[in-house]
Write a structure and sequence with these properties.
645 residues, Thrombin, subunit H, 4 domains, 41 strands, 4% helix
Length: 645
């Protein structure tokens, strides 16, 4: 390329495939390099995969790309070694299913119950722990199972996933497994869900063929935007009065099955497992299990895991011999002494001997701080304003306006985690109808310019008169003018989409924060309406405070220290180099520790006595807690690092 950067592109075709999944046998790329995968029409784009996805095993498995043709594109910045990128295998989906997303929607039997139906309303936390597993194995086939994020007594967010031994039994499978989160229909009996949130690869921590369980540690922690939940567990063998399982039958969207009776201890002879190490669910009161459900957690009435699915004979309409069997985690816990054959070593790292542990959201307090801010004034109500001829001033209309934007002026650096749309109209012609949402930086003319974020949203995911939130793939830190907007498409047959807005502001200053893209240029609605009125669109960024959970060392109360304990760091935000200001005359050595928001130590060093200013160079992007500790003094602060500054 003219700027010295390089890119490689390879087209892969496997005739009559319903989707293709690329498995990289060598994935070790440098910082700044990016890998994308997309279908031949460019409708499905997955990535960027970056150096963050590097892992010790060197493997990476992609999200399945719909269709029989896929393109892999590799981009490397100028002056950077290309690293290693090798395609080891391409998995061909040969089952005829009428492809949407990756082709598994609707494959399960008709008695299966969507997790967002009434039966799942009390399980909305636990559902966030459940993931669909794509498991390439050495026999050349790819298998479907279900896994569950599981908590440990350190509650440190280690991304352990519980599944079955017959799903993942060796390092080969663990290294190549693709974990897909939040694959669910957005509402009861609704459409297909998104498969965009995935993590590739894991390390096998414990399993044994004598007990049907496996515990893997994913190569990455699920980020904030995945809404992860680490499920709790219970190793008692009594006191369980009812059970549910949350699973992906036949690879379909997330389902829930329930039995209002107590499970019984039983012998599951299939597979040659140790005798009487399984829970038996004689018959489900609603739902069933299928292939793809294997490995799913069995939850008791207290919402804690007591087992994982081995197999059984349940099915829709089954009246007799309908039992399912779940490996008891009370046996998986410590029946075998080696750390590689038990759960206890990994799930009780503190050796506290708990028999039960509750679940945990590692971002709960951070999430509680999130909110939206609109420009709707006191006394104004959300409105949907008709456009002359047909359509709306905030969506599809006779003028064929394609893009809409709302202006925000961020006086301080803000952490943006999503885009919220207040949906007013949403009529779509088919399951492939989409809109595109954006964040734009302001140009010198105070109009939308450089694109900061973009995401495609299937219209069948949204409902009229309800808020829909599009999560960002990673937190965006921004200060100054910011535009939040969307793009619609005038297809035939016609889709209709609009968001709510403020009422027309016809008097006074005719305050306006709304913009439209018409005749290849942006202009304010005030200008577009000939100065008649101003508007504000109800499409807003989701802001979150930059200080999340109590996973890092606790901050002391203000009255416990003097003002000198408010550690000063500058510049903040920084691009990776910042200075820490220490109290004058501090005549003792101190230690400096940098923590992630999940409590992980990423930087530690000693600072000698009488140091007034100390420079730290740390280029990883994110929000961190910095703590400086001595015998008589401790200082704490938060720092924001954005290498793009």
């Amino acid at each position: 390329m003219a700027d010295g950067s390089r890119f490689w592109r390879i087209h892969i075709r496997s005739r009559h495939a319903y989707s293709l999944m690329v498995c990289f046998s060598a994935f070790d790329i440098p910082e700044g390099a990016r890998v994308f995968m997309y279908d031949q029409f460019g409708r499905y784009i997955f990535g960027a995969y970056t150096s963050v996805n590097n892992n010790p095993a060197g493997w990476l498995t992609s999200t399945p790309v719909p269709g029989d043709m896929a393109t892999v594109e590799y981009q490397v910045p100028a002056g950077v070694s290309p690293g290693q990128l090798t395609i080891g295998m391409v998995a061909h989906d040969y089952k005829n299913a009428g492809v949407l997303k990756d082709g598994y929607f609707g494959r399960s039997a008709n008695c299966e119950v969507d997790i967002n139906c009434d039966s799942g309303k009390n399980w909305q936390l636990e559902k966030r722990a459940v993931c669909r597993l794509f498991i390439p194995k050495q026999d050349g086939y790819t298998y479907l199972c279900t896994g569950t994020l599981i908590n440990n007594t350190a509650q440190d967010g280690t991304p352990y996933v519980l599944s079955a031994n017959h799903c993942i039994s060796d390092d080969y499978a663990a290294n190549r497994t693709l974990f897909i989160f939040n694959y669910e229909s957005p509402y009861c009996k609704g459409p297909d869900g998104s498969i965009a949130q995935s993590i590739s690869g894991a390390v096998l921590k414990a399993t044994t063929s004598h007990l049907d369980f496996s515990l893997t540690e994913m190569n990455q922690r699920p980020p904030f935007s995945y809404y992860p939940y680490y499920a709790g567990w219970d190793i008692n063998t009594s006191g369980h009065t009812s059970v549910v399982t949350i699973h992906h039958p036949s690879g379909d969207v997330k389902k829930i099955s329930g039995d209002n009776k107590a499970p019984v201890i039983a012998n599951f002879t299939t597979g040659g497992y140790d005798a009487y190490t399984h829970w038996k669910v004689n018959r489900w009161d609603y739902g069933a299990t299928e292939g793809g459900s294997s490995g799913a957690a069995l939850f008791n009435q207290n919402h804690r895991i007591i087992g994982d699915l081995s197999g059984g004979t349940s099915s829709c309409g089954c009246l007799i011999n309908c039992a399912d069997f779940f490996a008891m985690i009370s046996h998986s816990w410590a029946d075998y002494p080696s750390s590689s054959t038990q759960l206890k070593y990994w799930l009780d790292p503190l050796s506290v001997g708990y028999k039960t542990l509750n679940g945990m959201d590692p971002y709960e307090k951070y999430r509680q701080s999130c909110d939206t801010v609109s420009h709707l004034s006191i006394g104004e109500s959300p409105s949907l304003i008709d456009y002359a001829g047909w359509g709306y001033w905030s969506g599809t209309n006779a003028q064929h306006i394609t893009r809409y934007a709302e202006l925000f002026n961020l006086t301080d650096s803000a952490a943006i985690t999503g885009i919220a749309l207040e949906v007013a109209k949403n009529k779509y012609a088919g399951s492939t109808s989409v809109i595109q949402v954006y964040l734009w930086q302001s140009g010198q003319d105070s109009l939308p310019a450089a694109q900061l974020f973009s995401a495609m949203v299937f219209m069948n995911q949204m409902q009229e008169n309800k808020r829909y939130v599009v999560p960002l793939t990673k937190t965006l830190f921004h200060k100054g003018l910011l535009f939040v907007g969307f793009e619609i498409f005038y297809n035939t047959p016609l889709d209709t989409f609009a968001v709510f807005s403020s009422p027309r502001r016809l008097t006074g200053n005719k305050d306006n924060t709304a913009y439209v893209y018409e005749n290849n240029q942006w202009q304010s609605v005030l200008s577009f309406s000939g100065g008649t009125f101003g508007l504000s669109y109800l499409i807003c960024p989701v802001f979150c405070d930059s200080l999340p959970p109590n996973a890092f060392p606790p901050l002391r109360q203000k009255n416990e220290y003097s003002n000198s304990d408010r550690l000063i760091c500058y510049p903040n935000p920084s691009s990776g180099a910042f200075t820490v200001v220490l109290p004058e005359g501090l005549a003792e050595p101190v230690s400096l520790t940098l923590y992630t928001l999940a409590g992980e130590v990423v930087w530690h060093e000693q600072i000698p006595p009488l140091c007034r200013e100390h420079q730290v160079k740390f280029a990883e992007e994110g929000i961190f807690i910095i703590q400086v500790t001595g015998k008589s003094w401790t200082g704490v602060s938060k720092v924001i690092i954005t290498p793009s500054l």
